[in-house]
Amino acid sequence: NAGVTQTPKFQVLKTGQSMTLQCAQDMNHEYMSWYRQDPGMGLRLIHYSVGAGITDQGEVPNGYNVSRSTTEDFPLRLLSAAPSQTSVYFCASSYTRVATEAFFGQGTRLTVV
Amino acid sequence: GENVEQHPSTLSVQEGDSAVIKCTYSDSASNYFPWYKQELGKGPQLIIDIRSNVGEKKDQRIAVTLNKTAKHFSLHITETQPEDSAVYFCAATGQGAQKLVFGQGTRLTINP
């Protein structure tokens, strides 16, 4: 099992560009989520999904879109990147439909210039 | 919604001593409280968790205590070792356990 795999590991974007951060898990987990990590602020929930076809907003959803067409994949789309979206992004998954015992990926470091 | 406060933000202890990190939460309906360890350049890793029907849980050198009345929970690490140096995060579930709310993190340094 690879666990939770995030790609890319690093990315630099120009303001206004769009991109998709990929997240895949091979553990047949129902629950998947995206967090951003900024210094001194812990991890903040962006969007989450309790199963294929179901998504919902977290604390900081503005500027991000998600979809969940399969159990394995949960991509995060930045529609028009802004410098405020410079952060480290983590994807996590849990085997139930709730956020307990979450497994995290290794993260994507995004810089928007 | 849920709000989690974590203290201290940095903690430095001598190898072999104990370390304690404390968190408070606001939503009395929260019922799941995990602790994560994050090493440099890596994702957070679950090290221990506790549910609201339990007051204390131990796993070798780490333990977590929960006081539901006061709405606070703590991580205790005994006999600290250099490999315990990392950033530790507490968290609590909100909204039917579908949202995990994290504290701000504690950078723990173990001095040899």
What does this molecule look like?
The complex is a heterodimer of chains A (113) and B (112). Helix content of chain A is 0%, strand content 50%. Chain A has 113 residues and is mainly beta. Chain A is globular and about 35 Å long. The mean pLDDT of chain A is 95. Chain B is mostly beta strands and 112 residues long. Helices cover 0% and strands 58% of the residues of chain B. Chain B has no helices and eleven strands. In chain B, strands 2, 4, 5, 9, 10 and 11 form a six-stranded mixed sheet that branches.
How much is the average pLDDT of chain B? 95
What does the largest sheet of chain A look like?
7 strands, mixed
Shape of chain B: globular
Which whole number gives the mean pLDDT of chain A? 95
Oligomerization: heterodimer
Report the sheet-strand fraction of chain B. Answer: over 45%
What's the count of strands of chain A? 11
Helix content of chain B: under 10%
Give the CA-CA distance, first to last residue of chain B: 41 Å
Main sheet properties of chain B: 6 strands, mixed
Q: Tell me the radius of gyration of chain B.
A: 13 Å
Low-confidence stretches of chain A: none
**Helix/strand/pairing class of chain A, anyone?**
mainly beta
> Treating each run of at least 4 consecutive H or I residues as one helix, how many helices of chain B?
0
Order of helices and strands of chain A: EEEEEEEEEEE
- Counting DSSP H or I runs of 4 or more residues, the number of helices of chain A is 0
Question: Secondary structure elements and their pairing?
Answer:
The complex is a heterodimer of chains A (113) and B (112).
Chain A: E1 4-7, E2 10-13, E3 19-25, E4 31-37, E5 43-51, E6 54-57, E7 64-66, E8 76-78, E9 87-94, E10 103-104, E11 108-112
Parallel strand pairs in A: 2-11
Antiparallel strand pairs in A: 1-3, 3-8, 4-5, 4-9, 5-6, 7-8, 9-10, 9-11
Chain B: E1 4-7, E2 10-14, E3 19-25, E4 32-38, E5 45-51, E6 56-59, E7 62-67, E8 72-77, E9 86-94, E10 99-102, E11 106-111
